[in-house]
Every structure is written in C-alpha cells, then in structure tokens.
Specification:
Elements (H helix, E strand, L loop, with lengths): L4 H45 L6 H60 L18 H71 L1
Helix pairs in contact: 1-2
Length: 205
C-alpha cells in the first residue's frame, strides 16, 4: 500500500512520539508490578525474622530499603532499554524523512536544469532517485514532451510558411520579369507602327 508524502511526514512526526509514550507507560506499569510483587514476597520473610512485634519504623525502613534496591535495578534496565528503542525510532524517522527530502532535492535540481536557458527541449528529469516524487517527475516530463511536440509542429509550420513565401516571392519576380518583357515588346511594336505610319505618309506624298 502506497502512502502519500503528507501521510509519511505525519507518520514520521507522530509514530515515534506515540511509541515512546506507550513504551514509558508499559515500563512504568511493569516496574510498579515488579515492585509490588517483590515487596509482597520479601515482607513475610522480614516479619518472620523479627523477634517480637515489628514496629512501624522498622517496617517503613525495610520497605524503603527494598524499594530502593529494586528501583535501582529497574532504573538501569529501563533507561538502557528506553534509550535503545528511542534511538531506533529516531533513526527510522530520520531515514523516512531523508528518503522524502532526497527525492524533493533531486526533483528541484531537475526542475532548475530544465528551466535553464541553455537546456534543450529534449531534457527530461531523471526519475531514478526521486523516490516519492517520482509521479510528479513523470508528470513534468510528460508536460515537457507535449511542449516539445507543440514547438516542433510550430517550427514545421513556420518552415512551410517560409517555403511558401519564398515560392511566392520567386513567382512574383518571374511575373515582374514577364511584365517587363511584355512592356518592351509592346514598346517595340509601338515603335514599329510609328515607323510604318511615317513611311506610309512619305509614300503618299
């Protein structure tokens, strides 16, 4: 099951705190239960070893002594275990956050390269290593591919229009040349008719 980036960040922030709280509660209950059982087991032996009636002061001193001894043993094991589990939770959270941020950094780096002026349109963001940002990298690459195709079509249309303009320009030059030739021909015909008219007048006189 794939989780979103937001869900993973929330889990990275809340799961260690929740597990630490549950761990503290578990150790506290376990320690209190162990202290109760230890005192319940040691009290009859203490009373049996006392000659006569046990005074409240002696009983209080015995309870404090026994509680301190078991507390010291529990404190060492609880602190060691708590630190070990806390380190594991912190490392797991750091791994998850690092995995997400690494993907974000690589995606941002790819976007910077893509937006550079000298970057060709064929550039695509490397998807490998983007981790949870891979879907966004794919979408950006697909968008760039569509943009590249549109620009290629516009370039083809521009080339086609330019070719058509060159053809029209060539035809216009040919038409101009033909018009000039026709004008010269008409001028020659006009000159010939004028000369013919002059010759006819001279013959008539």
């Amino acid at each position: 099951m794939a989780y979103s980036v937001k869900t993973k960040l929330v889990l990275a922030a809340t799961v260690p705190a929740l597990l630490s709280t549950l761990m503290i509660i578990y150790f506290a209950i376990s320690d209190m239960t162990a202290q109760r059982d230890h005192l319940a087991k040691a009290s009859p032996d203490f009373i049996a070893n006392q000659a006569g009636k046990v005074s409240p002061e002696a009983m209080n001193a015995f309870i404090q002594q026994e509680w301190q001894s078991i507390f010291d043993a529990q404190a060492v094991s609880s602190i060691t275990g708590g630190l070990f589990i806390s380190v594991l939770l912190i490392l797991a959270a750091l791994y998850l956050v690092n995995k997400i941020t690494t993907g974000i950094y690589k995606l941002v780096s790819g976007i910077k390269t893509m937006s550079a002026v000298d970057t060709p349109l064929s550039f695509r963001i490397p998807v490998q290593g983007t981790n949870d940002m891979a879907p966004l990298a794919h979408q950006l690459n697909e968008m760039m591919e569509r943009i590249e195709n549109v620009i290629k079509k516009m370039r083809d249309i521009s080339n086609s229009v330019q070719s058509s303009a060159e053809i029209l320009n060539t035809n216009a030059m040919h038409n101009q040349q033909n018009s000039e030739s026709l004008f010269l021909s008409m001028d020659s015909v006009s000159t010939a008719m004028t000369e013919l008219e002059i010759a006819s007048s001279e013959i008539a006189t």
